[in-house]
Design a protein that fits this description.
Blueprint: H1 10-17, H2 23-35, H3 37-55, H4 66-76, H5 101-105, E1 115-118, E2 121-125, E3 134-140, E4 149-151, E5 155-161, E6 163-166, E7 169-172, E8 176-179, E9 188-189, E10 195-201, E11 205-207
Antiparallel strand pairs: 1-2, 2-3, 3-10, 4-11, 5-8, 5-10, 6-7, 6-9
Helix pairs in contact: 1-3, 2-3
The structure holds zinc ion (ZN).
Length: 221
């Protein structure tokens, strides 16, 4: 497997290791770890540091049900927690989707309820998270472009299938791309095939390209 070139960054990995990321963001990071040995090592080191710090603290008594609850959670496959970083089992998708994201989808990419939101652009809402942080899958048809936009908050894209590019670079499977209010861009899918990304935003996009400013801002990418 080709290793990703774009990563979540140390600050986000630190929050992930500390368990303080919102669920949609943790899902992006946990799924990126399935692709990225470099970030897996970073998280392991941060966890080791966190564990050493915890050992210095007064131990809290475990609840009698603690072990049973942990085992039940492992049996269920759990959420986007740590420790679920392997590539997926036999998968009906031609390009396998790794855990933990695969468990969230409940089926092959082609079988999901894709909703058209623009020319060559479809999305599936994953119904995750509370408040402003939202997660969805976006699919951009080969060679199609997302209308030019900026960001009012943070946007994270994890490339799952194919790739896309903007003025800063080309992004491929496993890459995490983080955009904020300093980025104004027009992402374009590579011509070789459709691009599918896990997309997380904490605020609606700001459409900046010509007539698009007059349209409702319901696109998230
Ligand atoms: Zn990484």
């Amino acid at each position: 497997m080709i290793e990703p070139k774009f990563h979540p960054g140390e600050e986000i990995l630190l929050d992930y290791a500390g368990g303080s990321l919102a669920e949609p963001l943790a899902l992006v990071v946990a799924t990126h770890l399935a692709f990225c040995p470099w970030c897996r090592r970073q998280v392991a080191e941060l966890e080791a540091i966190g564990g050493a710090l915890l050992e210095d603290e007064e131990p809290e008594p475990l609840s009698p049900n603690c072990l049973a609850e942990m085992m039940a959670r492992l049996d269920e496959g759990g959420g986007p927690g740590k420790g679920q970083r392997g590539e997926c089992r036999a998968d009906p998708d031609p390009v396998p989707i790794p855990e933990p994201l695969r468990s969230y989808l409940g089926g092959a990419l082609a079988s999901l309820n894709w909703r058209p939101v623009g020319r060559g652009l479809d999305q599936v809402d994953l119904g995750l998270g509370r408040g402003p942080v939202k997660a969805c899958l976006v699919r951009l048809r080969a060679g199609a472009a997302v209308p030019r936009h900026s960001h009012q908050g943070l946007e994270m894209n994890l490339v799952l299938v194919g790739g896309y590019w903007d003025q800063r670079g080309h992004y491929h499977r496993g890459d995490v791309v983080i955009d904020d209010d300093t980025v104004d861009h027009r992402p374009v899918a590579e011509c070789g095939g459709d691009c599918v990304c896990l997309n997380v935003t904490d605020a609606p996009l700001l459409m900046t390209g010509g007539l698009m400013r007059l349209l409702p801002s319901r696109l998230r990418w």
